[in-house]
Specification:
- With about 270 residues, the chain is mostly helical.
- It has one domain (about 10-265).
- The chain is built from ten helices and six strands.
- The protein has helices at about 10-25, 35-75, 110-115, 120-125, 135-140, 160-165, 185-200, 200-215, 220-225, 250-265, and strands at about 80-85, 90-95, 145, 170-175, 235, 240-245.
- Helix 1 crosses helix 10 (about 250-265) and helix 2 runs antiparallel to helix 5.
- The longest helix is centred in the first third of the chain and has 37 residues, at about 35-75.
- The radius of gyration is 20 Å and the shape is flat.
- The model has no long low-confidence stretch (mean pLDDT about 90).
Length: about 270
């Protein structure tokens, strides 16, 4: 039986975890999640009071986007991905598809940038594919404000500290309100998520909600925010900082090239 080459992200995540995860866990500060009546009861009530009417209002938009998506990329219309929620519980996040299943000559899917349609680019630019997330909020999987839920395949890659971002219900976004700087890297995002877990309150949520609204209606802020996306979380570098597929340390790039070379030479 012919062996299959290991995916680049999976390979590097495995090596980086073996190299650095134990050290990161040993040297990272413990997280102390905040507990309050607001977090336990009031936050959920506010989510429903805001989300239910909004979900009803955007239903026609979702219908229109769904119909256009059907003609644009065909079936299935929806993209479903397993995400990690509160206390590590998994749920499915559903979005409208915006990529085709186009393949290269070897039968492998083309890069995402080559499969996104023109309508898909439009949908992403204005976050129309995110409107379905309101259903996850109504179900109780998510909240309006909270750490963005990431794919379940990342679970084993987190340090003990960053895994605590799942101590609260995930949200549409968790904007940074401590500084004026936009979060561009996973290390910044994760540390902001941990700050939220330790400081969540009604006032903090109000400030973040205002920041979220500003981002939605500001094309420059949406563009800056999008720069953190598009690169899967992989692991931690030698300095203990989280990195993505867009910022792979040179040594891991070289190790993967050596692995590919070895695989090719021994392939039968």
């Amino acid at each position: 039986m012919m062996r299959k080459v290991e995916d680049k992200g999976t390979y590097i995540a495995r090596i980086a975890s073996a190299d650095n995860l134990e050290k990161v866990n040993r040297t990272s500060k413990a997280v102390k999640p905040r507990k309050s009546i607001y977090l336990k009861y009031i936050k959920r009530i506010i989510d429903l009071v805001i989300t239910v009417p909004v979900f009803i209002v955007v239903l026609p938009i979702n219908f229109i986007v769904g119909v256009i998506t059907l003609f644009d990329v065909g079936v299935p219309v929806f993209f479903k991905q397993e995400r990690t929620g509160k206390d590590g519980k998994h749920f499915y996040l559903i979005k409208f598809r915006n990529m085709t299943f186009a393949e290269d000559d070897n039968g492998n899917l083309l890069p995402p940038s080559e499969r996104v349609t023109k309508f898909g680019t439009f949908v992403r630019k204005y976050s129309l594919d995110e409107l379905l997330n309101f259903w996850n909020i109504i179900k109780g999987d998510m909240s309006l404000i909270g750490p963005r839920p990431l794919p379940a395949i990342f679970d084993e890659r987190y340090s003990d500290r960053h895994r605590m971002r799942n101590a609260v219900r995930p949200g549409l976004e968790c904007p940074c309100i401590k500084t004026d700087n936009h979060m561009r890297f996973y290390q910044e995002q994760f540390e902001n998520d941990i700050w939220y877990v330790e400081n969540v309150s009604f006032i903090v949520d109000c400030k973040m909600f205002i920041s979220l609204v500003k981002m939605v209606f500001n094309s420059k802020e949406r563009g800056d925010h999008a720069k953190i996306k598009g690169g899967d979380f992989v692991g931690y570098n030698d300095e203990g900082e989280a990195f993505s597929m867009r910022r792979i340390p040179t040594k891991y790039e070289e190790l993967y090239l050596e692995y590919l070379s070895s695989f090719k030479n021994n392939k039968i």
